[in-house]
Amino acid sequence: MKYSIIVPVFNRPDEVDELLESLCAQTVKDFEVIIVEDGSKEKCEDVCNKYANALALHYYYKENSGPGQSRNYGAERAQGEYLIVLDSDVVVPPGYLTAVDAALAANGEIAAFGGPDAAHPSFTDTQKAISYSMTSFFTTGGIRGGRKKLDRFYPRSFNMGIRREVYLQLGGFSKMRFGEDIDFSYRIVEAGYEPQLLPEAWVWHKRRTDLRKFFRQVYNSGIARINLEKRHPGTLKLVHLLPTVFTVGVIGLILISAVGRVLMHYDDPHRWYWLCAAPWLPILFYSLLIFIDSARLNRSLRVGLISVPAAFTQLMGYGFGFIESWWKRCVLGKDEFTAFEKNFYK
Questions:
Q1: What is the per-residue pLDDT for 344?
Q2: What's the DSSP call for residue 77?
Q3: pTM for this one?
């Protein structure tokens, strides 16, 4: 096999069904699929059995240890020259492996690579808004695999490929619960390899289905950023600080407006009206920018509207997680696991 596609799964049989169905449609057939069930209560074994005759499919069940260790479990049993790691909540277009093949043919041996993600037309408006907030230049700086980006490209585990020999050389993913894919990407670079962005090898990525779950996801990503800096000093860049600056800025503007309202109550309202109203102008301007850009890209006013709270959720959730992690790790001096014991698998 040229490719081994490794998918860790935790209680998502329906998503695995969609992913396997999309893999059946690949124009390149030289691949195997390794499904690693990570201690799920809702197993996907029956789903996998449905595709046993259509794919070179291997299903494994193991005790829960987290996505990184589950990928390593699959890699130890893989036969492909290249290991491709996908999340269970993605769907691949028919030409995905064709695009990877073309990139490898054009560039020779690539040690590691990754591609962008996008929202499928069938996704809900909330999923499309969340996808926009995670990929837009105006929210993440385009660092998640887009063509415009403010930082070096590091593959994410929803769409990551690596030569099998390099994977084994580096020991695979660490035991980090969050940020383990970036940690792996950093170690790839530190070993002297250069991950390549393959813009045409993209996937549809469902992400979270509501803003509450999305907040928890990005909050943990904010926590992981400090942990990553501790593991890989010097990797914290300006772009990683922007959500925290945004969070502090929004809170500061709201507080200034609140002070203005208090002063209006006890003093001449006309004198302090500007202090009450002016702080909201930057927030409104940014909201309008997000609305227009998302509505244009998604061709939907509704998605544009939902993208506004999604963008604030993405930036401020990450910012709050970053601040808490900075306080516990850098100020209180706690180590990675004791600082956030409940955020990691045992």
A1: 54
A2: T
A3: 0.86
